[in-house]
Amino acid sequence: MTDATLRAANVPIDPEIACPIAPVVDIVFSRWTTPILWALNEYGRLRFVELERRITKITPKVLTQRLRQLERDGLVLRTYHAEVPPRVEYEISELGRSLAPLFATLADWATANLDKVDDARQDYDAR
Question: Are the beta carbons of 40 and 67 closer than 8 angstroms?
């Protein structure tokens, strides 16, 4: 059956089939992922504490969780240096770097449109 046939029959459609970018949005735009990837793309290889300083409102626990997930997804590389004390560095992978054009496009959209969104919200709230 085609999507149109399924919709006409009122059959529920898997959201990942209905919107093929949904898995990408779940990976890239979950809370804190974008600031982490942005920082690593912008500043290069960083230690945990340096990332923490760049993303001031994130807790260490959440930063650890997000970095592990990004490493699992192949977007971030973790390098462990067996020193005393141990040193761990994070950097964006080539796969993660391939998202740069997407982020640039979103940054352009934000510059051009966030004022309009704010105006629309104020108009809506004034009703």
Answer: no
